[in-house]
Specification:
Layout (H helix, E strand, L loop, with lengths): L6 H13 L7 H9 L7 H13 L7 H13 L3 H15 L5 H13 L4 H10 L1 H18 L1 H15 L5
Helix pairs in contact: 2-3, 2-4, 3-4, 4-5, 5-6, 5-8, 6-8, 6-9, 8-9
GO cellular component, one term: nucleus
InterPro entries: LRP130 (IPR033490)
GO molecular function: mRNA 3'-UTR binding
Length: about 160
């Protein structure tokens, strides 16, 4: 139901299931419910489902539950909105959902999937993408400490440019 935009029907059904004790509200059960329909849902629908589940205390905001709020923007190739969402969620919940995927998407966009030379040229001329990478890494440092930033960046570069590195 949620994948077809029927958030209200989904909520009613979920209330009924929990009242009848057919379904115990846990992050394992509810994480997929937030993710359902992310490929077709709008950011509004995804946020609405997230708020429904957290406000009713069906689940806690973990990386698994927060991830779809970032992924919906990544699916739309809206890297700026995904980064803004990531920063907001990290500041509010002290979590970093889809950090690796977001960094990979930014670096892929910067390098256009090309060679190391293409990456360096684009990096110099692509100031906005540099700022997005810096934002994500600064949040990562704030939440997880400086050691994670270095490891995360190396892992991301290795993932994106595996044929070069």
């Amino acid at each position: 139901m949620a994948s077809h935009g029927n958030v209200d029907d989904t909520r009613r059904m979920f209330h009924l299931l929990t009242e009848l004790r057919y379904c115990k509200p846990t992050n394992t059960v509810l994480g997929p419910l937030v993710r359902v329909g992310v490929d077709t849902a709008t950011s509004y629908d995804t946020r609405r489902m997230f708020h429904l589940l957290t406000e009713l205390r069906y689940c806690k905001p973990t990386n698994t539950v927060l991830g779809p709020l970032v992924r919906v923007h990544l699916n739309d190739n809206n890297i700026e909105a995904a980064t803004k969402e990531f920063v907001n969620l990290a500041n509010k919940y002290n979590k970093t959902p889809l950090k690796h995927e977001l960094l990979c998407k930014i670096l892929t966009t910067m390098g256009d999937g090309g060679s190391e030379e293409t990456f360096i040229i684009n990096e110099k001329s692509n100031g906005s993408m540099n700022k997005l990478v810096q934002k994500v890494l600064n949040i990562d440092k704030k939440v997880h400490g400086p050691g994670d930033v270095q490891v995360r960046f190396i892992t991301t570069v290795k993932t994106v440019y595996s044929d070069i590195v």
